[in-house]
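Still learning. Any example?
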Amino acid sequence: MDSALPGEIRIAVLNGKTRLPVSDLAVKIRLQMNRKNDYHVGPKLTDDLGEVVFSPADIQAAIESAQKESLMDYAGIEWYSGRITVRILSPSELHQTIEVLRLWRAPESTVSPLMGAKNEAFESMSYDYPAPAGTQISVVLTV
């Protein structure tokens, strides 16, 4: 992984009423850039413990994919701002994401799990966090 990017990003999601973990919730992150477009990673689903991990490999793969598709639309990683946005997708965002993945012929192993996401039971929300290059980030969200 490039040291100009954040390290592992671990997100835990808890139900605000029960304080229990929320599984099968589609979450994505956005790396905020100081130039051109931001990079988006995910979505990925929370596990039975309400956790989802975005590894350095996940981040690097998303960057490489975006640059491969639209090189001129993205700045180099040296323009990373040191901030991320964690987003819980709305049902319509999730549906749109699934449609785009199908359009781009993503593997069924990528699309199928998203079909079972429980995002309709919760409001979509976004949170901004500092995520300096090379650091591991842990975030707990209450929905």
The radius of gyration is 15 Å. The longest helix spans residues 56-70. Residues 9-142 form a domain with the Immunoglobulin-like fold (CATH 2.60.40).
